[in-house]
Specification:
- Helices cover about 30% and strands about 20% of the residues.
- It contains eleven helices and nine strands.
- The longest helix is centred in the N-terminal third of the chain and has 20 residues.
- The N and C termini lie far apart (about 60 Å).
- The structure holds beta-D-galactopyranuronic acid.
- The site of beta-D-galactopyranuronic acid (GTR) has 6 residues, from loops.
């Protein structure tokens, strides 16, 4: 048996031999919940009443999302070795870009190419980590360096290619995990953080993550899973990201699980056209980020990514943020135009980061907290505990 076949068999076994949880039975046997499920309702039916209850509920929410949607990822590898390849000044000397290869995982079998651009200024620097398919794609690099931000991009396909047929390096290195492609890419942020935290230049309290579209889904999941992330910023992430399965427009659960079966555990596809049976919606992912900062950037013309549904799960998550006393740490920005991550999105995110990291109030604060849509009546039938 070759390595690929062996890894495939082990990862299928991991999926099917996992102990059954409360949501693993027949879909039809699960309760129908046409509105957004109550994040404060524990698996046993009791309602969260205290911070201790919420800590337990967060663990339940994590397990719901990993078992029903993304698959379980290993812990961050911890020991990450960097091979320094090149260093060069960028943006007229405002910063220096390092290109590196990280080596980590069991027997250092995994590698990840990154670019790290540090400003010329007083360390430690806040950092924005971005997962992508190419390096050097930060459109506001100069402005960001001027404001004192470091940027770190990584090539997510080094971990797992975006291919339904491929058993990529991460799946081979950790065959006992049922993590699917979005979970692997999300974990990539944690690998990068393991490395960045070894550098005196990086401020450990001010780490942000971002990605666009499928990369935005991965960045949001990273923020939900890794509490070291202080600001989670998905861009145009839509279905399976900052969007909503039950409400809105654009890509459906059936469409995404048919076209991208490798992104999610096979279980998710069973909910196609039966979204009311989902024990979660995407506000659960956002609620896990709370009370750490969360900012989503969207475009009105990007219907496929569900602009109104994104606002709805945002509103639902905001109930959790407010209950935790962090209502001013969850922002939402819409711009005109289409599916992309443009300078306008980056500038809004920099303003939001300045606000939550340094308390710097931007000139036009309201643009960071937009709610342009009328939410459907009764979509959020629950409120925060008293
Ligand atoms: C689309 C997919 C979206 C989004 C997008 C992208 O084809 O349906 O969920 O991920 O690709 O990543 O650009």
């Amino acid at each position: 048996m070759d390595t690929y076949t062996g890894a495939l068999i082990l990862s299928l076994a991991a999926t099917f031999l996992a102990p059954a949880g409360p949501y693993d039975g027949e879909i039809e046997a699960l309760p129908s919940i046409p509105e957004l499920p109550d994040p404060f309702r524990m698996d046993d039916g009791a309602r969260v009443a205290s911070p201790d209850d919420w800590a337990r509920r967060r663990e339940e929410i994590r397990e719901i999302l990993l078992s029903q949607e993304y698959g379980h990822m290993p812990p961050p590898p911890g020991a990450v070795r960097a091979e320094d390849e090149t260093r060069q000044p960028v943006a007229d000397g405002l910063g220096v870009e390092r290109r590196l290869t990280l080596r980590f995982g069991p027997d250092e079998r995994l590698s990840l190419r990154i670019s790290l651009t540090l400003p010329d200024g007083d360390e430690p620097f806040p950092v924005i980590i971005k997962n992508d398919v190419a390096l050097g794609a930060v459109p506001i690099l100069e402005e960001g360096l001027r404001r004192g931000y470091a940027f770190c991009e990584f090539l997510r396909a080094d971990l797992q290619p975006d291919d339904a047929q491929a058993v990529g390096p991460a799946w081979q290195a950790y065959p006992e995990h049922d993590w699917r492609t979005l979970a692997v890419w999300a974990w990539g942020h944690s690998v990068v953080i393991d490395y960045l935290l070894t550098l005196p230049e990086i401020d450990p309290q001010r780490i942000a993550v971002t990605g666009h579209s499928r990369g935005g889904k991965a960045a949001l999941l990273a923020g939900a899973m890794d509490d070291r992330i202080a600001l989670t910023w998905p861009n145009g992430s839509g279905c399976g990201g900052a969007g909503c399965y039950r409400f809105g427009v654009g890509e459906t659960l059936r469409a995404i699980t048919t076209n991208f079966p490798h992104w999610f555990v096979p279980r998710l596809a069973e909910y196609a056209d039966r979204e009311d049976r989902l024990p979660f919606d995407q506000h659960f992912v956002k609620a896990l980020v709370a009370p750490r900062a969360l900012f989503a950037t969207e475009a009105f013309g990007d219907e496929w990514a569900n602009p109104p549904g994104t606002q709805l799960t945002h509103e639902a998550a905001r109930v959790v943020y407010e209950w935790l006393g962090a209502g001013d740490r969850v922002g939402l920005h819409y711009r005109e135009g289409q599916h992309d991550q443009l300078a306008e999105d980056w500038l809004a995110a920099l303003d939001f980061a300045d606000l939550v990291f340094f308390g710097a109030d931007p000139a036009d604060r309201d643009r960071l907290f937009q709610r342009p849509f009328d939410p459907p009546d009764g979509a959020i039938p629950w409120a925060a505990p008293q």
